[in-house]
Amino acid sequence: MPTLTIALAAALTLVPLAGLAQGLATDVLKADIEAVLNSPEGGIDRQIRVVDIGKLNVAVGVLHRGPTGDSAGPTPAIEHSQVTEVYYVASGSGTLVTGTAVVDRQPIAPDAEVVKVAVGPSSRATFEDDGNQVRIISAGDVVVIPAGVFHGWRDIADHVTYLSIRPDPDRVLPAGYLNPAVQREESAP
């Protein structure tokens, strides 16, 4: 999966690295990604780690979505008010909807795991029929979703698996977080 490593490195160049703690780099290995994906714990959105890079945090998560069925119903949406996401699609495809034309906006509880660990303050909603960007995204594609922009998937025939690199300038994510699945892997002899 060399393209995954290249995409991760490219995405991390989108954030200023000045002030990187002690001049050290942080690796997110293919084995880490696979351990988190294969872990029975977690949901669709699984944070791998959150790194303090000086002026901000940057997080790396992995998401796997199964089939959604047809697009006859409304498309659910989510937005993160303080955290941008950079998606790199590792495998699969689906229709990604982004925009701000939504109805029934509801904040996600601040004590929800996804808010505390993965994406910070967020809201759920439903996309309106018009006024949003709709396109097919597939393996190898990169999408930048700024903070405050709603996004959601539909028309996933089989699956879509993607990395989410998350610049966190307001430091709402827990610096130093390491997914327990990786911790188990790191502690193994």
Description of the structure:
By secondary structure, this protein is of the alpha+beta class. It has a single domain (2-187), classed as Sandwich (Jelly Rolls), CATH 2.60.120. It has four helices and ten strands, in the order ααβββββαβββββα. It has helices at residues 2-12, 30-38, 113-119, 180-187, and strands spanning 45-52, 57-65, 76-80, 85-99, 102-107, 122-127, 133-138, 142-145, 150-154, 160-168. The strands form two sheets. Strands 1, 2, 4, 7, 8, 9 and 10 form a seven-stranded antiparallel beta sheet that branches. A three-stranded antiparallel beta sheet has the order 3-6-5, with no helix packed on it. Helix 2 (30-38) packs across helix 4 (180-187).
